[in-house]
Recover the amino acids of this structure.
């Protein structure tokens, strides 16, 4: 989503550590890898082997696979792999692209992953969450994410949601959580 | 508001043209003047003579008054003074700070000014609107602003609202309109 990419481009720097919690087709992983560069480090997670393979292929084509560690596993296992001091964590909720059977992220795993991501953030680091509500279970997952955000201490985190006003109501929207 | 200032700092450059539609105490005017610099140009509007005087004094103290033209008049007169090609227009709705009698912006004038601002924007330019809902008439003005945004052509404008999730419900929120 353009607003998420705007944020990443403005705030990620060479040498940063970043996480793509939902690789999917690998487009966000590729952007993260380009922005943090060879001196940086990216972790990418996906529950689908096909998504990990597609992401790996995309990174290879663009010559940036060496700074990326891909994990074939759900983002609820983030803290098992990623060390503290993370600058950016990206979540794309909803359908996992390319899955043969309809497969979506779940509120339980997403909330677990968000908690771990918030712990791992460096000061000034941020979580970007692209929220989709147009599929079954989407509104419930969106509400779970917002409830999690509302409970964050305003002394430790800024949390805001950005919705497009001149698009259909089911258009994806962006939640940003920043560690102050 | 911090998010508005983040946007301005990221996207305004030396030599740009910017408008503060509601000078108030002049803090936003000062930021705009600093960002566009001596090669740029800022127009500032306020219906209160005291606000224009306070803004002028603040700009003088910081040595940046020469690039700013202050207009003692409402923002609904924007198009009378400001030429096309504007990079940023900032609105702070709600109470006008420092007024002796409670004085607020009104939906009619605000919507008129927004229409003029949208016309005057350069491509890639943007309008930032800080919306307050905690005062009498605030929710109605907020609704008028969002209704105006919803009617913008998605081919010509991106429009989104950003609300803080872990702050009280009456906290101000930000509406951004970008000309594509």
């Amino acid at each position: 989503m353009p607003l998420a990419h705007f944020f990443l481009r403005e705030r990620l720097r060479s040498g940063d550590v970043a996480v793509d919690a939902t690789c999917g087709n690998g487009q966000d992983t590729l952007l993260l890898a380009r922005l943090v560069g060879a001196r940086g480090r990216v972790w990418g997670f996906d529950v689908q082997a096909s998504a990990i393979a597609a992401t790996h292929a995309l990174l290879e084509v663009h010559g940036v696979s060496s700074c990326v560690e891909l994990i074939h596993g759900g983002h609820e296992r983030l803290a098992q792999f990623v060390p503290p001091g993370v600058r950016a964590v990206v979540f794309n909720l909803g359908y996992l692209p390319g899955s043969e059977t309809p497969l979506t992220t779940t509120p339980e795993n997403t909330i677990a992953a968000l908690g771990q991501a918030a712990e791992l953030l460096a000061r000034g680091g941020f979580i970007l969450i692209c929220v989709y509500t147009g599929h079954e279970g989407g509104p419930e997952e969106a509400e779970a994410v917002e409830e999690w955000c509302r409970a964050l201490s305003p002394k430790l985190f800024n949390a805001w949601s950005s919705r497009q006003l001149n698009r259909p109501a089911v258009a994806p929207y962006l939640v940003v959580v920043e560690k102050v």
About this structure: Chain B touches chain A at residues 2-3, 10, 146, 149-154, 157-167, 175 (CB under 8 Å). The first helix of chain B runs from residue 2 to 11. Helices of chain B lie at 2-11, 27-36, 49-61, 78-81, 107-120, 138-150.
